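Hello,

Our lab assistant flagged a job as stuck in the queue for most of the afternoon. It eventually completed. Since we weren't sure the result was trustworthy after the delay, we are filing this so someone can double-check. Below is the sequence as submitted and the structure that was eventually returned. Let us know if re-running is recommended.
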Amino acid sequence: MSLSFALTNARSSLLATGVQSSVVARNIAGANESGSSRKSAVLATMAGGGVYVASIQRAENTALFANLLTATSSSAKQNVVYNAVQELSSATIDDTELDQSPAAKLSALTTALDQYANAPYDVTLGQALVTAATNMANVLNDATTTTQEMRQKADADMVASVDAINSLLAKLESVNTAIVKGTVKGDDVTDYLDMRDSILSDLSQQIGISASTRENNDIVIYTDSGVTLFETEARSVTFNRTYAYDATISGNAVYVDGVPVTGASAVMPIKSGNLAGLAEVRDEITVTYQSQLDEIARGLIEVFAESDQNATPTLPDVPGLFTYAGAPAMPTTGVVNTGLAGTIRVNAAVDPDKGGNPTRIRDGAINGNPAYTYNTTGAEGYFGRLQALSHGLTADKAFDASTLASPNGTLVEYASSSASWLNARLASADADATYQTTVVERTGEALSNIKGINMDDEMVVMLQIERTFAASSKVIATVDTMLKNLLDAVR
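-- returned structure --
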């Protein structure tokens, strides 16, 4: 080996170790930064001898990263659903001390009615029945308000989620452009690739996604339902907020590049991410629960309705103890009357606080028409009407089949089934959220073991680089001495 050849090899080695040292320094600096991956300099042999850094590579596992994105989206959705159902449960049925649930108030109403039926002459018991009925109506009103406020909150949170998605897509466009251009030039783009992965992780929190990498590290992003979110440039995600909700209002859909991905009109609905969870809360869970409240309200109005007592009835049934905004017509039977629970109230004609008389519950003709009088003799001990009402609360009724898996039964049973449905949704959401969180943690740990930066490993590599640097320096020093001696010999 000639001295010049040895010198060239040693010089190339020094240049390579310089780059290697820089890469290790980057790894150490990014060890505590979220999303940083371990980088390494790939060495290659030059044709005439020596080495050079052919490329900078980063540790990665495409399959594991894709699984992490999927798990993150699923976990985000389940956490949104769990938090919402927990809040709804706490506000409407989780009140074992105060007994403020519809089922609890219905039980109290049943007790008050039975007590009044046993002593129909006792005005105090009549007033107690009015109080129990008022509490029942108020609970349904309050539960409706809570449910609609939750829908409004979910709608507002959808705005924030859409804004976050658009912001992340804009960042992705900038970073992806830099990656493609850098790859074409042969530049080191590993830091940009880390940035892109971090953006994708944040994006998967908001909406379920899948990614496909093309030539020159270009990337295409789709929703988990197949709608294109990003290809060369970001697609527009749009949503018009609804500022006020009642049970009759349906929220607007979210559109990705003009394609609806939430709501009843969505042909390619998203399945995961915060946005999907919020849409499920706004359009499914709260809507179903509201329908159950409306069915309880309809059942109450029907049970306490008054009928024409003439020998040949010609008049329609009318609301009695319980009335609502659509009175004097009766609610449509057998189906959900949307928003009914929000307008149900006790008839003022029986409320002493409003100038009414509770004995009208016993006697009938609450609305003033004598044709609806049950106690035609005016006897204070008349209990027939009250007993009939009590039997009505325990009689089987037909409820809308879309509200519960097994809707038919007594009104009391239906109210209890509604509470059970919400508790079951809470338990299911809790289990799903816990499971998905565990999947994210385990997948994240597995990916971190592959691409994460270990300080001990970096120190070992640094020592190896130092030894290589020392050896190359020794070769140069030796060649320098030999050349000096050679020059001295020929002088």
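-- support follow-up --
The delay was a queue issue, not a problem with the job. The result is valid. The chain is about 55% helix and 10% strand. Residues 407 and 414 are 6 Å apart (CA to CA).
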